């Protein structure tokens, strides 16, 4: 019986040791998960800050609406010169000569 009690005590000690180690592993895992969550939150906040500080994207200005050119005024119509009234240029009309035929004056 004493050996049996020693075995039970040894088994209980081993079980207690394993339970403590499992609790320590669980605590270490919880701390690691908490640290990872904090790091992820820190990185997410840094990314949000980086995006917030980016310059606005370039948006080209809208093209001006098409405005057709103003109609050009019609060129002035060039009138041909009126036809000459006199059929013989330089003709001054009938002449009435003075006696002797050397001088003349227009006839009335």
* Ends apart, CA distance between termini: 181 Å
DSSP summary: helix tally = 1
Average of the residue pLDDT scores: 89
Report Rg. Answer: 61 Å
Describe the structure.
- This protein starts with a helix and ends with a strand.
- A two-stranded antiparallel ribbon has the order 1-2.
- Helices cover 47% and strands 6% of the residues.
- The radius of gyration is 61 Å and the shape is rod-shaped.
- Strand 1 (95-97) and strand 2 (104-106) form a beta hairpin.
- The mean pLDDT is 89.
- It has a domain at 1-54.
- It has 108 residues and is mainly α.
- It has one helix and two strands, in the order αββ.
- The longest helix is centred in the N-terminal third of the chain and has 51 residues, at 2-52.
């Amino acid at each position: 019986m004493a050996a049996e009690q020693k075995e039970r005590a040894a088994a209980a000690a081993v079980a207690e040791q394993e339970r403590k180690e499992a609790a320590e592993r669980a605590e270490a895992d919880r701390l690691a998960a908490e640290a990872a969550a904090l790091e992820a939150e820190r990185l997410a906040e840094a990314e949000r800050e980086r995006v917030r500080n980016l310059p606005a994207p370039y948006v080209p200005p809208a093209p001006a609406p098409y405005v057709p050119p103003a109609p050009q005024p019609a060129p002035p119509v060039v009138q041909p010169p009126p036809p000459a009234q006199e059929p013989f240029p330089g003709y001054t009309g009938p002449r009435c000569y003075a006696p002797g035929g050397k001088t003349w004056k227009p006839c009335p």
